[in-house]
Write a structure and sequence with these properties.
It is built from eleven helices and no strands. The protein has 182 residues and is mostly helical. The chain has one domain: Flavocytochrome C3, Chain A (Flavocytochrome C3, Chain A, domain 2, Orthogonal Bundle), CATH 1.10.1130.10. The longest helix has 23 residues.
């Protein structure tokens, strides 16, 4: 082989290794509700999107900007706009505080608490989870959030805290797939 060919092969190998390493370092991205709605907005599988959009989690960001939200924030000692305050956004916005590189173009803080707060960032599993649940789990899909993940926000640090009864609250946000219940 010529020296040029060997250099070309070495460069190709180095680029391939660099690309593989870059992919390994890349974290899954939060894709936003439009990505979920495409499949989970269908009545035939339970329209989980509609259940979310009419439920309390979809309104958490908007709630911060309401008169009531501003009063609660002020009483809690929050200075300025609660829709920009770290201590409010940590629990009122999915993916608050993650690196911007982890936010896909479809992500929006205004969506409040979304599917991805409980099921994990969707970029890696959104295509796979339609076909193979086990494969989706390997790619970060969380099938069922647990009580501890809810209590990250539903706790005594919240200025509007009321005793958190996981089983009762879970029923209020339940979004089953009727096809899987048969």
């Amino acid at each position: 082989m010529s020296r040029v060919t060997l250099v070309f092969i070495a460069v190709c190998v180095a680029l391939s290794v660099a690309l593989v390493m870059a992919d390994e370092d890349e974290k899954p991205k939060y894709v936003g509700m439009k990505a979920c709605k495409g499949c989970h907005g269908k009545d035939s599988i339970g329209n989980q999107y509609k259940i979310w959009s009419e439920g309390p989690h979809a309104k958490t960001f908007t709630q911060l900007g309401s008169d009531e939200g501003k009063k609660v924030a002020e009483k809690a000692g929050v200075k300025g706009d609660p829709q920009k305050a770290k201590e409010c956004l940590e629990c009122h916005v999915t993916a608050y505080g993650v690196d911007k590189e982890q936010l896909d173009k479809g992500y929006s803080a205004e969506e409040g608490i979304t599917c991805e707060a409980c099921h994990g960032p969707g970029s890696e599993y959104k295509k796979t989870h339609i076909k193979k649940k086990d494969e989706a789990k390997k790619q970060g899909f969380i099938l069922k959030a647990d009580e501890e993940s809810c209590k990250v926000c539903h706790n005594k640090k919240s200025p509007t805290y009321k005793e958190f009864k996981y089983d009762e609250k879970l029923k209020k946000i339940a979004h089953p797939n009727p096809k899987k219940e048969k």
